[in-house]
Each structure stands twice: as C-alpha cells, then as structure tokens.
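Supplementary Text 2. Reproducibility record for the structural model of the 126-residue chain.

All settings were left at their defaults, and a single model was retained for analysis rather than an ensemble. We include the record here because the model underlies the residue-level annotations in Supplementary Table 4.
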Amino acid sequence: MLAEGEGPEAAVGDLVLVDYVIRRSNGYFIYSTVEGVSFQPRDVPVGPVAFRLGDGRLVPGLEGSIVGMRRGAKRRVLVPAEAAYAPNPAAEPQPPTTSGRRQVLAHQAEPFLFEVQVLRITPGKA
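Retained model, structure tokens:
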C-alpha cells in the first residue's frame, strides 16, 4: 500500500472512481489515466474511470486489490496472468488507444503491474 486513504472500505457492489497506471511486469509503460505519467502523448484521453466492483468486467486481480481500499488509498499490485488478461483479454481496464490495447493483447499471458488510486466510493448493493 502506497497510501492508506480514509473513510469506509470499498466493497463488492460499490461504484469506485479510480485513477490507474498499467505497466508490463518489466515496468514497460502501457497507459495511465493521469496526465504526465511516463511518455504518454498529450493527445491520449486521460481522466478517472468508474467501475462497479463485482460486476465481472474488471481484471480479477485488480478488483481483488481494490476491495478493502479507502478513498485516497493508493496501491501498486503485480497481477499474475491468470488473474489479469489471460482468461479475458477484453477485461477492464482497457487503454483507450489502439496501441495500448495491442500491448495488452500481445502480452496477455504475462503478469501486469497496476498502480491504482481510489478517488471516490459510492456505496451500492452486492
């Protein structure tokens, strides 16, 4: 955990607003929702994204690391291939660019390194 955060913990059914960075396990940068990270071109869409925990859209290993986080919390997590994109290459989060999506697809059998920060938690039903 890079930062603890505060408030209630995110749980299955909650809507979470997050910023994230995707890298290959060797550190190679793929995409970030935060402007100015690595060498991402300025014309690439950035900005936080929302996910409902437990709806089956999110990479399982990433979702498991978000559950229990609090608003403002930040984590870096290495997700093994079998809990990342290997079982479902279309799982979220997906980079908005063709080159980013190609990176995910080409390396789906490898682990991925995610940095995620929870910006907001809206309670929901499981």
